Amino acid sequence: MFEGTYTALVTPFSKGRFDRSSFQKLIRSQAKGGVDGIVPVGTTGESPTLNADEHLEIIAEAVKHAGKSLKVIAGTGGNSTNEAIHLTRGAERLGADASLQVSPYYNKPSQEGLFQHFRAVARATKLPIILYSIPGRCNVSIAVETVVRLKKACQNIVAIKEAGGDVDRVSQLRNALGPKFTILSGDDALTLPFMSVGASGVISVASNLIPKEISRMVSQYASGKHRAALATHDRLYPLFKALFIETNPVPIKTALALTGQVEAGFRLPLTPMSKENERSLKKALKDVKIKI
């Protein structure tokens, strides 16, 4: 259902407010680049700093400008179950194709708490649900056994974005869930390793900047052109690493600003990149022949 390349969109700001024009241009660049879909207001979209009205405004804008060529997977998770339900129902009303549900962060629920949280959200909507396990930011992983329970309990829980950095866990998920349950990489640098053991694509940060290259790499691997995909990966690898030398989305937003696509505006507590790291990012961009 959700295979290929999906871009975890940044949220452009101008003078602290949502920059609608830059967001529209970014969506057009994604469609031109051949990605399969977009993910507005996820972690890369700085969702924790958006209020509920802004959150839904950005989803509406994404749906409006995605057209028929791009699926819209709305980031509507949260550390409050009621808030996640509210945002998910809103995304459904606005016409999103699916919902990305991050693990509740900070409150660090048990596996039973995770199960009940995701089940409550799934039961509140008809949208397909993509779970999002990112223990590095949430301090809790969605256990394989919990994903299995959720799949059995909720027919609309159909996929997981796996961002724990563990290839073996992808094998565990594939073995436990079967071939119809979709696994997507949450890390550009691990997309090919994950696909080699059963993932179907990536929710990408780098594709904000290079949608055509990421889409090509994923489609090359999926179509059996493994050497070509690996060559693309090798060429882009320095950029993949540079985009995480500071907290996401600071580097990708800075890269987009350096290439003239958005302003390098952030909401506190995020701040602009250090000059040293910006120099490293510029070098990586030049190394992969991106003009700045």
Describe the structure in your own words.
With 292 residues, the chain is of the alpha/beta class. Helix content is 47%, strand content 14%. The model has no long low-confidence stretch (mean pLDDT 96). The chain has an eight-stranded parallel beta sheet with strand order 9-8-7-6-5-4-1-10. It has one domain (4-224): Alpha-Beta Barrel (TIM Barrel), CATH 3.20.20. Helix 7 links the parallel strand 8 (157-162) and strand 9. The chain has helices at 20-33, 52-66, 81-94, 111-123, 135-138, 144-153, 167-177, 191-196, 211-222, 226-242, 250-258, 275-287, and strands at 4-8, 13-14, 17-18, 37-39, 71-75, 98-102, 129-133, 157-162, 182-185, 201-204. 44% of the residues are buried. The protein is built from twelve helices and ten strands.
